Amino acid sequence: MEIANRKLYKKSPFVTIYIATFLAAFHVFLMTYINSSFLSQFISEKSVGILFAIGSLASIAALIIIPIILRVLGNYLTIIGLTILEIFILLGMAFIKEATVVIPLFVAHWVVFQLMFINMDVFFESSQKEESDTGSKRGILLTIINAALIFSILLVGFILKDSEFWRVYLTSVGILIPFLLIVLIKFRKFKDPIYESPKILNTIKKVRNSKPIRNIFISQLFLKFFYSWMVVYMPIYLHNHIGFDWPQISIIFTIMLLPFVLLEVPAGHLADKLWGEKELLSAGFIITALFTMIIPFIGIASFVLWTVILFATRTGASLIEITTESYFFKHVQGDDADVISFFRMTRPLAYIAGPIAAIIALEFLPFQYIFLVLGVIMLFGLKYAFALKDTR
Q1: What is the torsional sign of CA 100, 105, 108, 110?
Q2: Which has the closest alpha carbon to 325: 217, 191, 226?
Q3: Residue 296, Cα to own-chain centre: how many angstroms?
Q4: Which of 245, 275, 291, 382 is most buried as measured by Cβ atoms within 10 A of its Cβ?
Q5: Torsion of the alpha carbons at 155, 157, 160 and 161, rounded to the nearest 10
Q6: Shortest CA distance to 21 belongs to which of 94, 123, 97, 95?
Q7: d(Cα 67, Cα 199) in Å, to the nearest integer?
Q8: 242-264 pLDDT per residue, tens
Q9: Rounded to whole angstroms, how far apart are CA atoms 15 and 128?
Q10: Chain centroid, CA 249 distance in Å
Q11: 231 HSE (CA, 13 A, CB side)
Q12: For 188, which DSSP code?
């Protein structure tokens, strides 16, 4: 068995990358839907969004300089250092109860885990040889990531008792241990590509002058904006305003996220071989927008109805996710660390713009109608979907 596994890893580095990515994603997603509730113990609900924005500003600065770090340390040493740092950060969040310590630790966590995924992108792109199957491989990768999200939510339902959030953060640390061991053993002979010097203005110019990358960057930004509102405000809305308890929310979210596991591999294959990215991306924006706009008009705590509506929003989001990822990575290589890191800035940019926009919307609208605003915003993504030229 050991010999067979060794041959499998040697034959396909993606097996190792998939396993490591699953563990990295699993450790992050355990905290995704409880971070806002955890932080609300130390600051007000409105301030939670501001803290996400602060963390995202710090992430942008880190993403700008990550190519320098990669040039000096290499991808292997960088991800090892980040993983060890993340372990200590989460231990602090688990056991320290002082707001003056917890808040900076959360900001540090928000930065570190995003840099870790840049490292995984470099491993992935450096192993990618053919562009013709990028959609399929990215579909598998995203399916694995989203499977981690589903399993993490189920696990949180078992381990989170009476708002004892330390259980979740400590479990996340436990998951990082095998991740670190895999990286130490399987990637020690990784040969770094040549990383370009991080000249942010040149990178912005490069993205702006490339119509395919520019359009897909903006499309991805719309998707992350959608996530920023949903991750921060949907748990609060379902619990505090609709009246679901956390076990119910856990089940709703688990079912809601199934499209990411069920649809992204076939959608990636379709984008490669049959329909192309433009059609799938456009459909994703339309589905996501329409069902998000329905949310404000559901005022009852119907488990089935909420599950169906949220499932539909993620059906659209899953199409956006796989097509933007596939299309972007068909236009970059492993040594495009500056462009890849800039692409990953869509998350922090969205988590700056999203909470700020939500806070402004809440000044004029009841809580539920911010989701109507979100649905309308998502419709504007169609402009950039229509501008794509299919790669098939």
Answers
A1: negative
A2: 217
A3: 25
A4: 291
A5: -140
A6: 123
A7: 10
A8: 888 777 888 898 899 888 878 76
A9: 13
A10: 20
A11: 25
A12: T
Largest CA distance in the chain: 64
Q: What is the pTM of this model?
A: 0.75
d(CA 238, CA 205): 42
Residue 302 and residue 239: Cα distance in Å, rounded? 13
Which regions of the chain are under pLDDT 70?
1-13, 45-46, 128-136, 138-139, 162, 196-199, 264, 268-276, 331, 333-337, 341, 390-392
Instruction: Please report the sign of the dihedral spanned by the C-alpha atoms of residue 161, residue 308, residue 321, residue 264.
Output: positive
Give CA separation, 136 vs 117, 132, 141, 323, 344, in Å.
19, 9, 9, 11, 20
In the prediction, which pLDDT does 262 show?
A: 81
At residue 314, what is the residue type?
R
Question: Dihedral (C-alpha) 320, 322, 325, 331: value to the nearest 10 degrees?
Answer: -100
What integer pLDDT is reported at residue 1 of this predicted model?
A: 39
> What residue type is 119 in one-letter code?
N
Q: Is the dihedral of CA 166, 227, 146, 13 positive or negative?
A: negative
CA separation for the pair 348, 351 (Å, rounded): 5
Unique residue bearing structure tokens 């932080």: 39
Helix (H) or strand (E) holding 109: helix 99-127
pLDDT at res. 5? 41
Cβ pair 247, 299 in contact under 8 A: no
Residue in 139, 256, 214, 239 with CA at minimum distance from that of residue 384 = 214
- Check if the beta carbon of residue 31 is closer than 8 Å to that of residue 172: yes
What lies within 8 Å, CB to CB, of 391 at 6+ separation is 131, 271, 276, 277, 327, 330
User: Using CA of residue 146, residue 348, residue 129, residue 69, what is the dihedral sign?
Assistant: negative
Residue 207: per-residue pLDDT: 78
Q: Determine the residue type at 289.
A: A
User: What does the pLDDT look like over 47-77, one tens digit per residue?
Assistant: 777 888 888 889 888 877 888 888 888 899 9
- For residues 348-357, b (16+ Cβ closer than 10 Å) or e, as one string? bbbbbbbbeb
Q: Are 370 and 358 in contact (CB under 8 A)?
A: yes
Task: Give the whole-angstrom CA distance, residue 364 versus residue 370.
Answer: 10
